[in-house]
Amino acid sequence: GAVVSQHPSRVICKSGTSVKIECRSLDFQATTMFWYRQFPKQSLMLMATSNEGSKATYEQGVEKDKFLINHASLTLSTLTVTSAHPEDSSFYICSARSRRTGFNEQFFGPGTRLTVL
Amino acid sequence: GQNIDQPTEMTATEGAIVQINCTYQTSGFNGLFWYQQHAGEAPTFLSYNVLDGLEEKGRFSSFLSRSKGYSYLLLKELQMKDSASYLCAVSRTDSWGKLQFGAGTQVVVTP
Q1: N or C terminus of chain A with fewer C-beta within 10 Å?
Q2: Which residues contact A83 (CB under 8 A, 6 or more apart)?
Q3: What sign results for the dihedral spanned by CA atoms B48, B54, B55, B59?
């Protein structure tokens, strides 16, 4: 159990376009989903925390108008990178917390590799 | 804020033991996680410590000392597939389950 999927796994787009990434918890309800970004040879940097039915909470330095997060249900959160630029090229990873687990474990999706040309 | 420090890289031979240290400074400590991450893949959960002491799980063990702000991950009987980045992450009681990750330790296992 506790499987998280992401779609797409890889995307290449032109500068100025928008890209939507989906994160789904497949076999559990996720009270909270998190979005991370990871640049090569660096650690995961939390971008935002998303609770179902409420606005996302963004970390300092993350532009909320550029990285739109929607958490419409207990199993789906989406991240839209608007007007993407080459510096947005990165590995985007989502994670989800289950209502069932007794501690703060997060289950990670497989990640989305975004390349902006 | 919180500082999480771990070594950048460690090299060990197949069959050996490696210990990856992690020190942290935080208020409202609510547990420490270790994750394994292979290149280009998402992290996978290895261990969770919230109380002092050693947690053993097969070839991997994790230790925590809350008073010292210190944890280590012990990898025994190293295998080539253990070559990966190992991430230390801290959770705080006031952060709604958010995790703060260290920079990761790249472990290279040589034949």
Answers
A1: N
A2: A16, A17, A18, A66
A3: positive
Instruction: State the Cα–Cα distance between residues A29 and A3, nearest whole angstrom.
Output: 11
On the question of pLDDT at B1 being above 60, the answer is: no
Rounded-to-integer distance, Cα A37 and Cα A7, Å: 15
Min Cα separation A18/chain B (Å): 23
Q: Does B54 touch chain A (CB under 8 A)?
A: no
Amino acid at position B27, single letter: S
Tell me the pLDDT tens digit for each residue of A55-106. Answer: 899 999 999 999 999 888 889 999 999 999 999 999 999 999 876 665 667 8
Length reported for chain B: 111
Chosen for mutation from B55, B96, B108 (greatest number of chain A CBs closer than 10 Å) is B96
Q: Distance of alpha carbon B76 from its chain centroid, rounded?
A: 14
| Residue in B45, B50, B102 closest to A43 by CB | B102
Place of tokens 């230790």: B63
Tell me the pLDDT of chain B averaged across its residues.
Answer: 92
Whether A96 and A32 have beta carbons less than 8 Å apart is answered as: yes
Q: Return the closest-CA partner of residue B45 out of A51, A71, A57, A101.
A: A101
Q: Which residues pair with A91 in a beta bridge?
A: A38, A113
